[in-house]
Design goal:
- The protein has a four-stranded antiparallel β-sheet with strand order 3-1-9-10, with helices on one face. The chain has a four-stranded antiparallel β-sheet with strand order 2-7-6-5, with helices on one face.
- The protein is 29% helix and 40% strand.
- It is built from four helices and ten strands.
- The two termini are 23 Å apart.
- The chain has one domain: Cyclic Phosphodiesterase, Chain: A (Alpha-Beta Complex), CATH 3.90.1140.10.
- By secondary structure, it is of the alpha+beta class.
């Protein structure tokens, strides 16, 4: 990995998809390949559920994160999270992000509450599948797209937090992983 250059861009703390959940995520993306001209897929190597995002952080803030994230992880116990369907975020009536929906989860709410950082807006837990490059074309294909991934439902094990950032030109580079509850 390249050395970190500060300010660090697009830094975030997230729950990575691993194991069976990663396999399910990849199968959803594979089912959407016929629409790859209108979708820009989330990196297959790093699907995640973001807990906190910073557009950029300074070195002193990064040093604080290195203390805070393991403390948060140590206070949380591993749990299972349900993924229940696919939905889209919309802007001005047009879909712009396709995501896996995460229904309310008490353990996830407790994990988020352990995060000491202020939130810009309400927490809407989700796992991005793809950004929609051509919202107008998506409108004409939406029924077919959603039919291709209907009944998407699975569980994911939440047993670690990962700190990601843009390093060099690589977005979503995993920097450090912290097991929940001190589990390794």
């Amino acid at each position: 990995m390249e050395p970190l250059v500060f300010p660090l861009r697009s830094c975030f703390v997230a729950v990575p998809l691993t194991g069976d959940a990663l396999a399910h995520f990849l199968s959803v993306q594979d089912a959407l390949k016929p629409w790859s001209e209108i979708l820009r897929f989330q990196k297959r190597e790093t699907p995640h559920l973001t807990l906190q995002f910073w557009k950029e952080i300074l070195e002193i803030e990064y040093t604080q994160l290195l203390k805070q994230v393991p403390t948060i992880a140590g206070k949380a116990e591993p749990f299972t999270l349900r993924i229940a369907g696919v939905d889209a975020f919309r802007s001005r009536g047009l879909a712009n992000v396709l995501f896996l929906d995460v229904p309310f989860s008490e353990p996830l709410a407790r994990l988020k509450k352990l995060c000491p950082w202020p939130s810009i807006g309400p927490f809407h837990p989700h796992v991005t599948i793809a950004r929609i490059r051509h919202p107008q074309r998506f409108v004409t294909e939406e029924k077919r797209i959603m039919k291709a991934i209907v009944n998407t439902s699975f569980t994911m094990e939440v047993d670690q937090l990962t700190l990601y950032a843009t390093v060099g030109e690589q977005n979503q580079t995993p920097l450090l992983t912290f097991p929940l509850g001190g589990v390794s």
